[in-house]
Specification:
171 residues, alpha/beta, 5 helices
Length: 171
């Protein structure tokens, strides 16, 4: 499920996104609910083994919109036992409150979008993060880190559209 809201538009991103006010998020989630209701009729007996909420930046959604979105998923579709439920997040958006909401709606995997671990490349990309933020959040965030999810999974998705990116390097 694509959530198109972003704090700023990143030049490397090929996905549709908007920097319009997040106030439109509830209306967008409502429209997504309507689409799910329509699509669920096409898949009446299908069990979903995976749900991926991506973007854009879904972690910008108000908590009530996140709850509403997941309620619509569970109302309109059947999830298989052990379904992987992934929520994409910007590391800077991770808070104890967001983690609590994600756990309460059944998320068992967070995909952290890290564009680069190199500050110069991040400046070139005009990305929001610094390479030090994910590690700082993990070390100092207390409950505000994805390893506290019930599944105990943690993943960092490294987007590979940075200039001259040929191998992973944390420097």
């Amino acid at each position: 499920i694509h959530i198109p809201f972003c704090q700023q538009r990143c030049i490397y991103c090929d996905f549709y996104s908007t920097t319009q006010s997040i106030d439109k998020a509830l209306a967008y989630v409502h429209a997504t609910e309507n689409e799910m209701r329509h699509r669920s009729k096409e898949l009446p007996t299908t069990q979903l083994s995976s749900v991926y909420i991506g973007g854009g930046t879904p972690s910008l959604l108000p908590h009530e919109a996140i709850r509403q979105l997941f309620s619509a998923v569970r109302t309109n579709f059947t999830l298989s036992e052990g379904a992987e439920i992934t929520f994409e997040a910007n590391p800077d958006d991770i808070t104890p409150e967001l983690i609590d909401v994600l756990i309460s709606v059944g998320v068992n995997r967070i995909s952290l979008g890290v564009q680069s671990f190199n500050d110069q490349q991040l400046q070139l990309l005009r990305a929001i993060l610094s390479r030090h933020l994910p590690a700082w959040r993990h070390q100092h965030g207390g409950d505000a880190n994805p390893s506290n999810l019930s599944s105990k999974q943690e993943e960092v998705d490294k987007h590979r559209k940075e200039p001259a990116a040929t191998s992973f390097s944390p420097t």
